[in-house]
């Protein structure tokens, strides 16, 4: 037979020309005269099963029964009946003789007898799986007998197949016929092809062909007997050879034995209805059956029942057969999650089951469902995905992450829930290595720029840690633009001590990416300030960082001295495990919570307000904090707290640009900030300029100290002379800067000029007042509006555009008074 089929399919190489499937190797067993082959689809290569039946002529009675089976299988649909896909009948030749062959294509299945040998289950796990299989076959038989009024006629091991999900399905419909109960007196055969049934499977009335008694019996009488035969064969592991073997009940479970005996009752009317076997049998009440039944009707359950079920499922799955869990429960669970019927706790169970799969099967059975779940709007599902991303992140390809996963995950950066923002940030440790440079530099860094000024201090800390960890995935230009600004301008100035520690650690771990000029001018000044930080951990890390960067500078100096060109990036001396230690620190600090206003102050290296360096000056900063803060005790100075970063501030301390970087900015929100201020002219410049001018006594008298407002300590500190230690001592200096910010016009006039006694006045010729000078004479009340004398040079009236400055002053003044008097008098009437 197999040789004949090979000749038939030889025309297309791997299958019939009119059959869109390829025929593979046959199984060892099949029902009746059929041959069961493995097969694949020619379109997509998906697996199928192909059944073939051959006869010498088209009138062969086996082919007639086969055509009945094809017709019945095509029309009868049920979840526990084999799914029909395609059928065809062809003619061929086996040597000189002609052959007719029927082909049926179904879903991929395997004979039950072979599958049971492959599973090789035992004990409780075997009984639970057999109970589930018998439950499915009993449902199929009940559907045929009670709902369709059909009689299968030959229920046995050979007529049952197993799907890829380990479901049992009924097939072999060649004998299937309608139950003719209306013609009770007729002696004609009700089952046209009952001769195909083996004698060992026939009940007494069928073997004697008592058709009248069969028609008087219930519709399930014959198939109930067949169910008893099936139970005996699967539990004994032997193929039934004669009817007397059914009396051997040693292998039948005790909980199933009463039902087994009722199925094999000698009286057809007393045989058990398969529907009652499903509902009442104690044997079917086990964990596997109950679990699968619950998942099949998951849509009908409420949220409380779902949550309770999925929380218990991990422990139940541990007790069930591993292969049944992976091939049956896992696909059902994945489908429930994908279509929204399962709750968020089901994802934890899915990942636990998926961990038992080989990597290739995990990528095909579990990963597609997970990728689809990232598009879910259910916040609980999103949280669960981010919490367990380390379990499946390595299996995601770079293309899937960049195109399908990251766009959905990125919405969590702006979520109102701080917990979800933090989880989104943590997930980037897994996803960032798989992102393209365009996504990394164009999208991710902009989100991180926002998070570095987040209101949650733990999120700001982790953002710094993340930047240090993903620095190796950035290109050189992005690193130059982002890292130093992010670590020094933001992290080192944060009011949260762990955030400052994170900035120091990030700088040390990424030290290989900075050149010597950046280390000397931008990193060392900012780190040195933290050596007087109130927090001892920050101070310790600052000293360690200084040692490392000074070592780099020292190596650079030695190389320059010896004439060897230095490559500072290769001589940083960074420890190989520095990156891993930074990562573990980030994970342990995620639990720290707090608000931006609840943390200790820091010193800004580039702040415009610098603490006084004099020995007698000190400042005290009031910090409201609910958490204990370690304050450093200093004899000469204390530290000034910068403004706390908020959602509307950029978190860069006293940097010039105080706006939050726009998410649409092409520069990522970092390179628009210059961490260094322009050097302000020192008071030494004023002194040198004053010494070059001729000394003269000032015309203005000394300012009355009683009218001048006292200089505040912050004003003294902001205007202090950084070179005061090398200049001549001046009693109580309160020098003005070149460009002071006038608080008010009165305070600007009353400021003391400490260098006025030795400075020459500005030449009159070079100073041209913007407004005409006025003379304040208390004795002349009209002086304010009177014209100036003729000899004056200022010509204020001409400057006002009146054009009468050359006239005699007396007539003009008299005329003005007369005119005003007359005009005022006339206006009175």
Walkthrough of the structure:
β8 (about 160-165) and β9 (about 170) form a beta hairpin. α22 (about 475-490) packs antiparallel against α23 (about 495-510). The protein has a 5-stranded antiparallel beta sheet with strand order 1-2-3-5-4, with helices on both faces. A 3-stranded antiparallel beta sheet has the order 6-8-9. It has a two-stranded antiparallel sheet with strand order 7-10. Helices cover about 45% and strands about 5% of the residues. Mean pLDDT is about 75; it is low at about 1-15, about 570-670, about 670-685, about 695-785 and about 795-829. By secondary structure, the chain is an alpha+beta fold. Keywords: Kinase, Transferase. InterPro entries: ARM-like, ARM-type_fold, CIK-Related_Protein, HEAT_type_2, Kinase-like_dom_sf, Prot_kinase_dom, Ser-Thr/Tyr_kinase_cat_dom. GO terms for molecular function: ATP binding; protein kinase activity. This is N-terminal kinase-like protein.
Structural class: alpha+beta
Shape label: elongated
The number of helical segments is 31
Head-to-tail CA distance between termini: 137 Å
Q: Radius of gyration from the CA trace?
A: 47 Å
Bin the strand percentage.
Answer: 5-15%
Give the % helix.
40-55%
Low-pLDDT residue intervals, each spanning 5 or more residues: 1-15, 568-668, 672-684, 695-786, 794-829
| Main beta-sheet annotation | 5 strands, antiparallel
Main β-sheet, spatial strand arrangement: 1-2-3-5-4
Beta-strand segment tally: 10
Mean pLDDT: 74
